[in-house]
Structures are given as structure tokens and as C-alpha cells.
Amino acid sequence: MRRPCREVQQYIASGASELPSALHAHIAQCAKCQRAWRLEQAYQQSLNAARSEPVPACDLPWARIQARLAEQKAVERAPVWRRYAYAGGFAVALLAASLAWLARTPRVDAPALVATQPPVAQEDLSLRALGLPPAAFITERPVPPATPKQVASASSKQRPTRRAQTGAPATPAQKTDSRPDEAKPVAQATIAAEYRPPTLTEPPAEASFPTALNAEPFTIASLPLSQYELYDSQQVEYLPIRYGTPSSDSHNEGNQNDAIICSF
Amino acid sequence: MDRALAMDNLYAGAVDRTLTDEQLAAKARAGDSAAMEELYLRYRQPIFRLVYRSTRNIDEAEDIVQDVFLKAFERLHTFREQSRFSTWLMRIALNLCTDRARMRQRRQELLEREADHKLAWSHPDAPDPIETTRQNAFQEAFYTALNQLPDHHRQLIILRDLEEMEYEDIAQIMGVSVGAIKLRVMRARRAFKTKLEPLLRAIGELE
Fold this sequence. Notes:
Chain A is built from ten helices and two strands, in the order ααααααααααββ.
């Protein structure tokens, strides 16, 4: 591109409405520049015509915008409100269903709870139900003669339930294992007092059960004894504890999985 | 129309008019309806003019203006004051114009100039009816060529040549550098002239 042509292009790009006289002479000779310059002039003319066209005033009142904004806000609020309503309704329905289920279902969870606990804990529950001092009742269950090693380990184990109920201070042997020689006689005496050989057939000492004999059939761990068969109504009551579900084979009275949790 | 403007001007006294756009935007963001109204009254006509240049239909332009302000007030929290409120608003307007143009293109509808408006917009003191007709022919050619352009070129022609905005402002609206805008405007003009040339030849304005 020659230099005058480049100058004409620069003038056109800058939007100039007039060209210098030197470039006019060039345009008269150069057909390309002449065409470009005429097109630019026509463009400017049409642009001026378009600019001169009056734009009407906007007739949109603020009230219309305000109303639409209010509509939008109302639409935006509704889902949030509905969401809370749905959540609240669901919570109420869940609560009602839970209450209905609790009111309808028989309390069968107590035996299961008892069955999972050790015999000592079961006995404690029953004693608490009677309102008797727990120290007066000691479960009789077969315990093999303790070896010195077992005595030592038994004395070192903590038995918080019994200790808490009796309120007796811990023996020196229970407090520490650092002096096993001193702890042994005390531990043996404790074990001997607590674990006697089973005497299921011997009559209970009435003096130690002043209220139990006069009591009506009571509830042990929320299970009425009257539901269950009494093998010896005068002396011994057996409360079968059932393991497993009702559909399982082991859920039968007299099964070897049954356990005696209380005897008088 | 005059009544609506008069009512708007009457109610617009609830907010301090000396506040800047950004201060008003901050108030409007907090839910101040008077600040929103003041912003609307400040920019209703400039936005309408910009939109009208693109659509050339009053009803459609008003619809777009309404959408522009609704969208702007709805998304005021996204206005970070890195640019001016006016350029932010114009950016929304151009985006909505582009959306409308695409919809229009899909429907294959041709916008026709309303005859009554054409009469109303002509200068009452036009010296020569022949000159007026010539001017109208130029306008028709101009807008016909403009509508044939792609969106990005058309927006630049409107902003730079019709609205005579500064390159810096256009750069803010478009979110690019000033140099890039200058280059794009040059390309847009070249494309526009390519479209305009046969139309001017058809009406005898170009040999």
C-alpha cells in the first residue's frame, strides 16, 4: 500500500469528515481510496440520520417495577416458608408416629435387658423393685472352690454395683494389688461370704425376708411373675429368661437357655 | 406519558438526589425502596435509548427496560463497585438485548416500524419533505445493516457511534481493555460498511 493510501485509511479510521487537499488529489486518482472515502461519507451520513432520529421517552412508571419487585419477593418467600412448613409437618408426623408406636408396643425390652446383664445386676434390679436393702439379699449360685490365683484376680477386679449398693468401703486388697500377701486373707473371706454353695432346696430364712413372703406377686424388671409358671409356689420361683427372638427355636420355656434370676 | 413522568418526579423526593450511584446502590441493596426509585429515574431513559436503538420497538424496549431493572435490583449484591453503576446496568441491558435478539431470530419475526411512531418522530420543522424522505431512507438502510450484524458488532456500533460513548466506558461495559475495544470497533465498522454499501447503492446514495 502506498503512503497516501495509508493516510486516507488512517483518516477514515479516525472518523474524520474532511480530508486534506493533498489527499483529495490522491483520491481523484486512486479508485480504491475514492470508493472507500465515498463509503465512509455515506456511512457518516446514515449515522447522522440515525442519530437524529428522536428516541421516544420511556413511559414505564416506577409503580410497575415496584409491583414486579414485590411479586418477585413474594415468590421468593413462598418456597422458604413452605420448606419450613414441610419440615415442621414431617417432624410432627414423626413424633406422632413414635408416640403411637411406644403406646402400642408391649414392654418386652426389659427381659432382654435383664438377660444381657450378669446375674448380680439382675438381682440388684429385683431388690430395688422390692424396696429392700440390697445387703440383705445375696444370690446363691454355684461357685467352685477358689484357687489362690482366682482369689487374687477376683479381689483385684472391681465390682462397682455391689460396692455402690452396700456402701462398704473398699478393702485394702481391693484398693491395691501392690500387697498381694495382705490382700489374700481378706479377699478369701469376702469371696466366701458372697459366694456360698447353692442351696436351692433349703428353706429360706424367714427372718431375712420379712417383707418378701408377704408381698404380692411382684414385678421383676418389669415382668409380672404371675405370667410365668411357678414350679414351687411356696418356696421357689423361677423366672425364665428367654434368649433369641420368638421365631427362633430357642424361644421355648424350659429351654436350657433359660436362667434363674431369683430364688427364695 | 407526561403524567407518568410527573408522578415519578413527584414521588422521587424521598431520597437525597446528591447521592452518588454507588451510595444509592448500597442503600438499595439494604432494601431502601426510595434509593431504588432514584436509580430507576436516573437511568430509565438512557437504558431505554440504548435498548431502543437495538430493538426499534417501543413496547419491546419497555419490556427490556423493566427486565433490566428487575434483574439489577435482584442482583444488586453482585455489584462490587469495581465498575460504575451505569456501566454495570448497561451491561445487563446489552445482555438482555442479545437474548431478545436471539429469541427474535429464532421466531423468524421481522420487526416493522410502526407507522404512527414514524410520523411522530419526524421533525415537525423539517424544511424539506424530500430531505426528510432521504433521511428516512438513510435511517432505514442504517438499521437494516445494523440488524444484519452479529451481536458483538452491533453493540459496539450502538455504543460507540450512535450513543457516542467513550472507549473507556465501553471497555468497562465489555470487561476488556481499551485497546481491544478500539480494535473491535474498527472491525465492527468494517463489517457494518460491508452490509451498508449494497443498501446505499440500492437507494441510489452510493454510486
